[in-house]
Structures are given as C-alpha cells and as structure tokens.
Amino acid sequence: MTTATAEAPQGGLPALLTLLWLASPALPVGGFSYSEGLEAAIDAGLVHDEASASQWITDQLHLSLARADLAVLARAVPAWHQKDYPRLQELDAWSRHTRETAELRLQSEQMGRSLVEWLKTLQLPQFPPAALAALPVPLQTPTYPVAFALGLSLHTSPSQPLEQALAAYAFGWAENMVQAALKGVPLGQSSGQRILLRLHHEIPQAVAHAAALPDEDRQAFSPMLAILSARHETQYSRLFRS
Q: Taking the complete model, does pTM exceed 0.90, yes or no?
C-alpha cells in the first residue's frame, strides 16, 4: 500500500470521497462478519422474506443505531477535532458499557481496534505512532463509533457538515446489514437493492434525530434485539459473529 500524502483535511469533492472510503464495506475492519442480531431473528422466524428483512433493518436503524452509535458519532467528531479527550473517554465508555450482550460489545471493540490499526498503516503526518501512544489508554483502542469519528477528524475539515458524516456511517452500516440479510434469509440481489432504496429514504430522518439528540436522551435500550443477540451466542448454526 502506498502511503498517504501530507495534505491537510479538505472539503468539497475530496471530503466526499473520504466519506465514501471510510463507509465502504470493503474497509478491513471486519464488518461483513457481523449481523447484529439479524441472524438470530432469521433463526427465530421473525425475518423470513424481503418485507420482514426490510422492516427489521429499518426499525433497527431508527430504534438502535440512531439513538446510540449515530448519536455518539455526532458528539465524537467535533471532540476529536477539538482534542477534547475527557469528552471522548466519556463517549467511548458510554458506547462500551451500553452494549447489551457480550458479542455486541466484542463487535464494537474489535471493529474499533481494527479501524485504528488501519489508520496507522496510512502513515498520516497528522496521526504518527507517537500521537496514538500519547492518547489516554481507552482511546488507543476505542469502540467503533469513536474510532470512526477519529478517522473522520483526520481526513475532513471541522467545517464539513456533520450530517454528511453520520449519513456515510449509516449507509455503510445499512450495506452490511443488507448483505447479512441476503446471505441469511436468503434473498436475491434485487431484493437487497430494494431494501437499500428504502433505507436511502429513511437514513436522513435517522441522521437528523441523532444529530439533535442530547446526551441525556441517548440510549441503547432494545430489549428484543438484546434477547436475540444473547440467544445467538449459543445458536447451533451460525454464519455471523453477532
């Protein structure tokens, strides 16, 4: 891999390309290996066709992702730009402690760790190894939304609209979830694209909700998802790690 050039974060088209890059399912962080409870929902018969998969992922977008990870990301991006490490530790601790099952916590920790390792390989002048070692210990291996915010802060300007970053994160998540549905239900490619079309229309509302959500209203309370995730940990036959 070639090293990145020593350029400062930019806006405009380069910033858009950065968002597409960071949100790509091809990024080597292991997102493809998780279904976030969807596989357990399929096993329980709650998701069994295109309509039920579409509804499940849409509900998870609004009831889980928007109220938790997206809301954390909305606060973590400016905190990284401002080097507000106490605030980042607070957000990371909240993200870590509100994972309702062991496998969901391991997912966020593994993906966050992998993303930081990938950022190190880019050899960015604004992110040398010494900079990582100087961070508070929890931020050296942050959870995924906090790590994603770090990646954004290294590649984008503080003036870039925050909604764009949240939308990129949400769409990358949606692509992974749809791919899990295609493999697990299973569904065809056309069904997957129709689900993505629906999510394309739903994501702006989820982003607006997350961006406006105050700390005291942020939550990760999704009882059915937590139960299914706990069941998945001992599910007999599994394709995914969550």
A: yes
Dihedral of alpha carbons 56, 106, 164, 63, sign:
positive
CA 21 to centroid of chain Cα atoms: 14
End-to-end CA distance of the chain: give it in Å, rounded: 30
Delimit the domains of the chain by residue range. 35-232
Could you give the CA distance from residue 145 to residue 66 in angstroms, rounded to a whole number?
12
pLDDT tens per residue across span 103-139: 999 999 999 999 999 999 988 888 887 888 889 999 9
Topology (CATH) of 35-232 = Urease accessory protein UreF (1.10.4190)
Q: Compute the half-sphere exposure of residue 9: CA atoms within 13 Å on the CB side of its CA.
A: 18
